[in-house]
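[audit] Reproducing an earlier prediction to check determinism. Same input, same settings, fresh worker. If the tokens differ from the archived copy the diff job will pick it up downstream; this log only records the rerun itself.
[audit] input (350 residues):
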Amino acid sequence: MKPFVYDRIHTEWKEWMEEQGEPAFRADQVMDWLYRKRVPRFDEWSNLSHGLRERLADSFNLHALETITSQQSADGTVKFLFQLHDGHAIETVIMRHQYGNSVCVTTQVGCRIGCTFCASTLGGLKRNLTAGEIVAQVVEAQRYLDQAGERVRSVVIMGIGEPFENYDATVRFIRIINDPLGLKIGQRHITVSTSGIVPSIHRFADEGLQVGLAISLHAPNQELRKRLMPVSRRYPLEELLEACHGYEEKTGRRLTYEYALIGGKNDQPEHAHELGQLLTGSGSLVNLIPVNYVPERNYTRTPRNQIFRFQRILESYQVKATVRREHGSDIDAACGQLRAKHMNTERQSS
């Protein structure tokens, strides 16, 4: 299997060109064809010699993803199901906001974290994606937006998988899409979401990056969090919050805590009071997320009036809380849901 062109950072392209006896500026030209012109054929890279184009084609794979299907919501959300070179499927989502287009990318084929409310864990973890396979998702999303003369403004690493269990590829992905010769997506327009892999939070604090970090919390105490998120057995809530406070002190950046509201499980007033007491004085933001219905999980959605009551209770503790705007409610909106449906169809047809 040849490596993907999107796996390489700019300095590695310069090194490769030097090995080929080519001038260093050829690396800039390759980046231009990949990320600015976005031309998906080596033989159309017209300012490179025929011989260099042939060597590129012999050495690298330009096609990391094939579109299996896509769904478009009435609100403009677009969800792609992509096939990888080994037949596995992943999801990528374009979400439209007033401030611009955001792309949600996947970092793993499946997930082993086991959150009980998430469709991504159905079927377990198959493998990690390479940095290039993650980059290619943003490139394909940008190609889609090119048709309307629009661009990707921000990226959230919140799709299928746990980014911090594919740490090196995730950080490399961030550096590639942030590169001025790449997609030029500002670090402050990139957010990583983790279920709470404590050692990686400490490590991420030392990367010198200015990206956002979101913690999937989903419970105000250790016992409930263990039931909803088995990862809390490995990294207890107290240890997680200690790592989060250390991250904020070292980076000077405010964290976001994601809290999926699940009917009758974690959405009662007593949960809101407990969460408010837990986070009061932290200065962090809580993002309240109405849980998406997943048939295999059979969880119910919290009513809207109860969501806003939960928000008001948090704010009474001086904890800033927002309610996430829903995207794609008329399509397979839940993370991993479209992939799960595809897997079921494949099993039935085999």
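[audit] rerun output stored. Observation attached for the diff report: The first strand starts at residue 66 and ends at 72.
[audit] end
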